[in-house]
Specification:
- There is one protein chain.
- Helix content is 40%, strand content 13%.
- With 282 residues, it is of the alpha/beta class.
- It has one domain: NAD(P)-binding Rossmann-like Domain (Rossmann fold, 3-Layer(aba) Sandwich).
- Strands 3-2-1-4-5-6-7 form a 7-stranded parallel β-sheet, sandwiched between helices.
- Strand 1 (22-25), helix 2 (31-42) and strand 2 (46-51) form a beta-alpha-beta unit.
- The longest helix has 29 residues, at 118-146.
- Residues 1-6 have low confidence and may be disordered.
């Protein structure tokens, strides 16, 4: 195929159109996982929803189906190897292939480092890092056979910055970032791209209690150049881009969606003093 023919064929469909693609999203019983799945469905993808408790997905499955997409729910515990094999096998037998994987399932235990237990560390790393790898491995086997795939590992701004109270979590997300680069190199020859989508500070079920502290929210927003925490729909475009044909030459990258906080966001100039309010009246 000539360069001109390739260019023409690559742009026959609308940008970011996922029609005909099948996406598996882990951890879709709540939180950002549902937003990722919803964004992919709106872009045209059919969906495989997963949770440790399949029954928890029934309402969301109906919502995705109402968008006109094929959708099934499967039980998946990313900390259990047999569960991973079973879930991927069930998904492939239902749809025939998985084109897109969003490795979203994760967890956190927020503690000062001095209080972290052996079990705390293992739960976080087993879910966020080991689970990410083995789900990707299971799905990639079919992708390799077909010569096509999009793998999106969900990371975090904690992969590039240190935060007190998030030691094991940051280690797990830093591992996901490094793993993403290694898998991109490993599977690139098979037509598979592997990227990491790293949200900054978003209000989720895991951290919503922190956003009830107005002083902390103001402190956080002061450090974010765009002066607000993330909204879930801020991730719609990035996840669809990384899942689409338009990201075909992007792999091994970490896309930070963080309002700029990873720039360092330390004020190098004093804040401008507010002008004194003039008294009203004569």
């Amino acid at each position: 195929m000539s360069e001109a023919q390739h260019h023409a064929s690559a742009h026959r469909s609308p940008f970011f159109d996922l029609t005909g693609r099948v996406a598996l999203v882990t951890g879709t019983s709540r939180g950002l996982g549902q937003y990722f799945a919803r964004a992919l469905a709106r872009a045209g993808a059919d969906l495989i929803l997963t949770s440790r408790n399949r029954n928890a997905l029934s309402d969301f499955e109906q919502e995705i189906s109402a968008l006109g997409r094929r959708c099934v729910s499967v039980s998946l515990d990313v900390c259990n190897e047999d569960s991973i094999r079973s879930a991927v096998g069930e998904a492939e037998s239902t749809f025939g292939a998985i084109d897109i994987l969003v490795n979203n399932a994760g967890m956190n235990i927020r503690k000062p480092a001095i209080d972290v237990t052996w079990d705390d560390w293992n739960r976080i790393l087993d879910t966020n890092l080991r689970g990410t790898f083995f789900v990707a491995q299971a799905v990639a086997k079919g992708m390799i056979q077909r010569g096509y795939g999009r793998i999106i590992n969900v990371g975090s701004v904690t992969s590039v910055a240190g935060y007190a109270g998030l030691g094991p979590y940051g280690a797990s997300r830093g591992g996901v970032r490094q793993l993403t680069m290694s898998l991109a190199d490993d599977w690139g020859p098979h037509g598979i791209t592997v990227n990491c989508l790293a949200p900054g500070w978003f209000r989720t079920e895991q951290n919503k209690i922190m956003y009830e502290n107005q002083e902390w929210v103001e402190y956080l927003c002061d450090r974010i150049p765009l002066k607000r925490p993330g909204r879930p729909d801020d991730l719609d475009g990035p996840v669809v881009f990384l899942a689409s044909e338009e990201s075909r030459y992007v792999t091994g990258q970490t896309l930070l969606v963080d309002g700029g906080i990873s720039t360092g966001a330390t004020r190098a100039l004093p804040a401008k003093p507010q002008k004194p309010t003039q008294p009203s009246g004569s």
